[in-house]
Design brief:
heterodimer, A: alpha+beta, 5-stranded antiparallel beta sheet, 10 helices, 46% helix, 21% strand, B: alpha/beta, 7-stranded mixed beta sheet, disordered N terminus
Chain lengths: 375, 296
């Protein structure tokens, strides 16, 4: 075995980094073998070259406008990105540290450059830059989508609703003031139903636009008024629309519920509509709303074919329609909106489905959440 | 602030509130109070004298580049240093890419600073691209600067028919690409370096922010405005007497370009420096100081 002592000459020449020393006027006065190998130029041909000749054009300008002045001002500069030109004209990405060697009187003797190949690092940086550019583009796209969404909501809320309202008013006038044949009256009834359905669809779409596409449902909650009348009205409405279906309703709300009554009514209405659409027509639907301790619970159950497992997972997604005939169903937004209303109240909407019954259960905290101590 | 701490003379401090009223002596409208203008451009005033000498930095670094030269004028001049927006300690939030797409906007800022300081018959010393910015400013506000020192000037960097600027259009595009792709190495991530300078403790806080650290987007805009500029046609209209200081070996502003500027200016002197490179204010401050002194 040879003597393991380090040979400084050899360390300089074959160190795992490049060494280049340049004079104040930018000429190479010394270079090690490592950098010579990287550049494909014998070390002795490097001596006397201008350092600019080893740099790409951008690097030359950057050297003059950044690196050289910084070295004069600070004495040294670390972690500078450079591209070195090989003898074949290829570019080798490198990271450089540089320091001025100065005489005792501060006179600039020469500048030492230590160079590291930085191929992988440059790829990484490039990837980061691309990722940032992509993120910026996506943010811009999101902003544009948000603008489009605002317009969409405006169209739904105003431009679609207005003609529907005008149609509804016209149908009302025809029914009240005009003499119509039996056939005419029947057609008017159909028209009225269609207008009602179209209005409901617009409302659902508006909720979707405001909710999922926007920042989530906005609910206006308080515990000032009783919830019971709101729910009773929903049940009565559903009964009047579908008198052939039996709804066994039980509403026992003994304590105030901190909620948006309109929205909870909408949730109840959507669950009932779902039960009517999917439940067995000859079996009653159960509607139970009650407070119990700190919770308010509302559940709707119907008999019928159980919901398949794979369908269960997608029930609350928007535009999910299951296997029901198109004409009978809406847009598939009812359960989605119900679950969004549940979330907006800090609650949840669960479903269980067996041979006996399919039951949707909404649970929420009855009281206003305690505000966090800060603020 | 660098110069404020060094000098004890009262003239070095920024003007007090209410200085110079709303309307400048030059009659132009003042959109901002003088104080706001001086703060925004990190204007530092030192020294004392009848005349004011204003030093303007070029592309790359901030006003610190002028410090080795500027200090030599403090005993007989009021010395003004500043940073262009986005450079050094200026207020980068005041920057807008649309406004600073051409050198005219930079010249307007120089005039705004000059008005805030009530400059008349002052000396403008501009390095690199600032040489042309000073020329534009002196055309627009002839009373403000009577003398113009242009260090490494170039009215156009790209070669043209019958004109040799030293750069091809492809090279300038490569440079702009380089700045776009490489800002991690050149500006944003430029590590703060600590200089062994125990006799200059006030530099410590400045060093936390590298002198040549510029917002990458602003550096790119400034490079574009600089290297795509063509102000050859303006040189004949420069009213101030001028001194062209040309470095011996300068890849950014070659000797032929300096000679061109000298020939195109109505009243100019030309001095070829022994200094090499593009920053003689740093590599040969004594030679630059002597040349400016002789001129003014």
């Amino acid at each position: 075995m040879s003597d393991p002592a380090e040979d400084l000459e050899d360390l300089y020449e074959t160190a795992p980094c490049g060494y280049v020393s340049i004079s104040p006027d930018g000429r190479i006065v010394k270079a090690n073998r490592t950098i010579a190998d990287w550049l494909g130029r014998p070390a002795d041909t490097l001596v006397g070259m201008r350092v600019h000749d080893l740099l790409g054009f951008g690097g030359r300008i950057a050297f003059e406008t950044h690196l050289a002045p910084l070295l004069r001002m600070q004495g040294h500069v670390h972690e500078i990105a450079l591209e070195l030109l090989t003898a074949d004209g290829e570019k080798v990405p490198a990271i450089a540290n540089a320091a001025e060697k100065r005489a005792a009187d501060g006179h600039h003797l020469f500048t030492r450059l230590t160079l590291f190949r930085a191929v992988d690092r440059r790829i990484y940086e490039q990837t980061l830059l691309e990722a940032r550019a992509k993120a910026e583009a996506e943010t811009k796209a999101h902003q544009e989508a948000a603008l489009l969404r605002e317009q969409f909501i405006a169209v739904l809320g105003h431009d679609l609703r207005n003609p529907l309202a005008a149609l509804a008013a016209g149908v009302r006038l025809l029914g009240r003031k005009e003499k119509l044949s039996d056939r005419g009256l029947a057609i008017l009834g159909e028209m009225n139903g269609s207008i009602g359905r179209a209005s409901a669809l617009v409302d659902d779409l508006l909720d979707l636009a405001r909710g999922s596409l926007g920042g989530g449902f906005v609910v206006d909650r308080d515990a000032d008024a009783p919830l019971t009348p709101a729910l009773e009205q929903v049940v009565a409405e559903v009964r009047s629309i579908t008198p052939e279906r039996a709804i066994e309703a039980s509403i026992r709300i003994d304590e105030p519920v901190y909620c948006d009554r309109g929205r909870i009514g909408q949730l109840a209405s959507n669950l009932l509509a779902n039960a009517i659409t999917h439940g067995s027509p000859d079996r009653p639907i159960s509607f139970v709303a009650a407070t119990s301790g700190d919770l308010f619970t509302l559940s709707v159950a119907n008999a019928g074919t159980p919901i398949p497992k794979d369908v269960m997972k997608r029930l609350f997604q928007p535009f999910f329609r299951g296997s029901v005939r198109r004409s009978r169903n809406g847009l598939g937004l009812g359960l989605y909106i119900a679950s969004e209303i549940a979330k907006a109240h800090g609650g949840r909407l669960d479903v269980s489905s067996t041979e006996e019954e399919t039951r949707f259960t909404f649970t929420m905290p009855r009281s206003k959440p305690v505000a966090p101590p800060s603020e | 602030m660098l110069f404020q701490e060094r000098s004890a003379s009262p003239s070095r401090s920024l003007p007090p509130q209410g200085f110079a009223a709303e309307v400048s002596l030059l009659g132009g409208p003042m959109l901002f109070s003088p104080d706001a203008v001086l703060r925004r451009h990190n204007v530092n005033i030192s020294g004392s004298g009848e005349r004011t000498i204003l030093f303007a930095h070029g592309f790359g670094c901030d006003q610190t580049m002028w410090e080795p030269v500027a200090r030599n004028f403090e005993r007989d001049f009021r010395v003004v240093l500043f940073d262009y927006l986005g450079h050094g300690q200026s207020d980068a939030t005041a920057y807008s890419a649309e406004r600073y797409a051409s050198l005219e906007a930079y010249a307007e800022d120089v005039i705004e600073i000059g008005r805030a300081l009530d400059l008349r018959g002052a000396v403008f010393v501009g390095h690199s691209v600032s040489a042309m910015i000073g020329a534009l400013a002196s055309i627009r506000a002839p009373e403000m600067f009577s003398d113009l020192v242009m260090v490494g000037p170039s009215p156009r960097y790209i070669d043209d028919e019958g004109y040799r600027g030293g750069f091809s259009r492809e090279q300038v595009d490569e440079l702009l690409d380089f700045l776009a792709a490489n800002h991690l190495g050149w500006s944003a991530a430029m590590a703060p370096a600590i200089m062994g300078n125990p006799d200059r403790p006030e530099l410590g806080s400045r060093l936390e922010n590298s002198f040549c650290r510029t917002d990458p987007a602003i550096a790119r805009d400034f490079a574009r405005a600089t290297f795509l500029s063509d102000n050859r046609g303006d040189l004949a209209a420069v009213p101030a007497r001028a001194l062209v200081l040309q470095c011996s070996e300068d890849i950014i502003a070659p000797v032929a370009v300096g000679e061109y500027v000298h020939a195109a200016l109505p009243r100019s002197e030309y001095r070829l420096l022994h200094a090499t490179g593009h920053c003689p204010n740093l590599s040969a401050p004594e030679e630059v100081t002597a040349a400016i002194r002789e001129f003014v």
